Amino acid sequence: MHEMHEVHEARGLPYWRRSALLMRTIAGDGPAICTLQVTNRCNMRCSFCAFWSDGAPPPEELTLAQLARVSERLAQAGSFILSVEGGEPMLRPDLVDIVALLARHHHPVLYTNGWFLDALAARALCGAGLVGAGVSIDYATPARHDAHRLPGSFDRAVAAVQHLLAVASVVQRRQIHLMTVLMDDNREELEPLLQLSARLGVRHRVTLLALSGHNRAGGKTQPATGVTSWLQGLRRRYPHFAGVGDYIDRMDDYLAGAYTAPCQAGRRGFNINHLGQTNPCIELTDVSVGHFLDGPFDDLLARLRIAPSVEGCQRCYTVCRGNVQALARPLKIRSLAELLR
Known about the structure:
The chain is of the alpha/beta class. It is 38% helix and 12% strand.
């Protein structure tokens, strides 16, 4: 089911041309980031996530032909950073083909738990045009990570990173990173995790745990305030600790209930779920403004911008929100440099 032995090279615009179009897209006022959930199915049952409970059988998920139309339709608005997510996206046996068609116009980045990402899959995905990948590790202690996700998942995640590095181009290597969900009970593990990613030779990103988004489970809690200065210190000591600086700078404000900046979901970024429904963000998958392939594209974008569920929403402070918030600020070039660093 998960054999991805053949290399499918991307056919479309060269990387430099897509990058120039991405810069133009970001310079505009519309969305530039899209989270694309290719499945909600998952082989793990992580304590903070319930996306798997909303999974659909493969015949009901977006087909390869539909995803090709999604890619072409997105290209009408420019070149996008596409976060290819799930569930676990590698449960799609056609993932290599999905990446190849997305890479014709856009910048696909895979987010995975690493379980199925072996050497052959890494070679096929990188050959298909994957721009980067984030592999999830939440605890530096293998036993704690495995208890949180699945027995053996720590070693498989580390191996997945090594497989990607073995075949990635210079461009792709810059965007391979470990992704850690910041929670109350893994704070002391973040520095050892940063040391692990440094040894592996990849970047590291963090995202604050989401509690009240749709399909989020209540198995974990957020850290208390006092994380901003601590994270800033880690960024100074570990240059490979990547991400938009403003996101970390405002984390304490959010945790204290003092962050009031309007959310840019639906304006600078949005989500397409595994069934093709268009959502303001991945935390609001219960809010749809329509199927992405139905109706005029401009009407869909207009409905996203005025989705009432986003008005005043402060339900999350994930890195997804941090990224789209950064693109709404005047210094977009600096934010982009941090985002793609």
